[in-house]
């Protein structure tokens, strides 16, 4: 066997991709290689053991997710040429399906640790209580939410980037593999991909996290603008008082942060909330 053939067979072996296998099936592509899980566990352990004063301490979980996604992307880039060489185009979806199952398991662990370490759900509940008109207890300081809101938007942005990468790769593979297929087959493949990406645990988990984020960002915006109004001052010669500049700066910051999440639903929600606030409460 040539050296190139030996290398390819060695790469294939990690995912049960034997070049000598005739045909291909889900079993052939069974992802029983512990590489993804092992590396993800190592990265998570490293993140949890990091010092709180390290430079990227506030983004540890976003960085851990990024490393997971990058690892899977490298596997796809490595194995796609092998799939095309030995099985032909149109087979990448089956590999992605198994990789995504492992990705979901690791994302669940990472997000669970994020929820615990960042006390995310408790902060969300505290924010919810603070937004009730009848609430008379101590409110959470808006500036205390800044780090976690930034980390959540980065986590979601990395997730969206990963999902777009997967979608782009599989669609390109389907286009070549389905070039002579019936229209029904093409539609079935597209629907399978959409279902995988929309209903995978990764997507559902991040939707939940972003749902909490929107409420917390709204609270941050309202409380910060309220403070700007309370601290309003006017200097002779100025066209407006300080609360106008401060208020719009805060709104711009919140919408910009929502934009950085790469979620169109999140962005639209924050634009609607900020418009309602400016037109209603602070008109």
TrEMBL record:
Q: Provide a GO CC annotation, any one.
A: Golgi transport complex
* Source taxon at top rank: Eukaryota
SMART domains, alphabetized: Cog4
Gene Ontology BP terms: Golgi organization; retrograde vesicle-mediated transport, Golgi to endoplasmic reticulum
Residue ranges occupied by any COG4 transport protein middle alpha-helical bundle domain in the UniProt entry: 17-283
Report the source organism. Aquarana catesbeiana (American bullfrog)
Q: What is this protein called?
A: COG4 transport protein middle alpha-helical bundle domain-containing protein
Q: Which InterPro entries match?
A: COG4, COG4_M
């Amino acid at each position: 066997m040539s050296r190139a053939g030996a290398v390819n067979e060695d790469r294939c072996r990690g995912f049960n991709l034997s070049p000598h296998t005739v045909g291909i099936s889900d079993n052939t592509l069974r992802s029983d290689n512990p590489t993804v899980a092992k590396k993800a566990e190592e990265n998570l352990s490293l993140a949890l053991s990091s010092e709180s004063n390290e430079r990227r301490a506030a983004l540890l979980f976003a960085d851990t997710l990024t490393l997971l996604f990058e690892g899977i992307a490298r596997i796809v880039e490595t194995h796609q040429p092998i799939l095309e060489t030995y099985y032909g185009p149109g087979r990448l979806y089956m590999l992605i399906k198994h990789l995504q199952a492992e990705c979901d398991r690791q994302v669940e662990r990472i997000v669970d640790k994020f929820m615990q370490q960042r006390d995310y759900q408790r902060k969300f509940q505290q924010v919810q209580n603070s937004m009730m008109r009848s609430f008379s207890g101590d409110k959470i300081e808006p500036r205390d939410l800044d780090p976690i809101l930034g980390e959540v938007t980065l986590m979601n942005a990395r997730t969206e980037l990963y999902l777009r990468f997967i979608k782009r790769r599989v669609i390109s593979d389907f286009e070549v593999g389905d070039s002579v297929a019936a229209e029904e087959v093409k539609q079935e493949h597209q629907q399978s991909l959409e279902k995988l990406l929309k209903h995978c645990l990764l997507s559902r988990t991040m939707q939940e996290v972003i749902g909490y984020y929107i409420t917390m960002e709204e609270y941050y915006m309202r409380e910060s603008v309220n403070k700007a109004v309370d601290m309003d001052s006017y200097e002779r010669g100025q066209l407006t008082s300080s609360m106008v500049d401060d208020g719009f700066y805060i709104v711009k910051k919140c919408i910009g942060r929502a934009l950085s999440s790469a979620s169109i639903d999140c962005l639209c929600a924050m634009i609607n909330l900020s418009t309602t606030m400016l037109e209603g409460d602070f008109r």
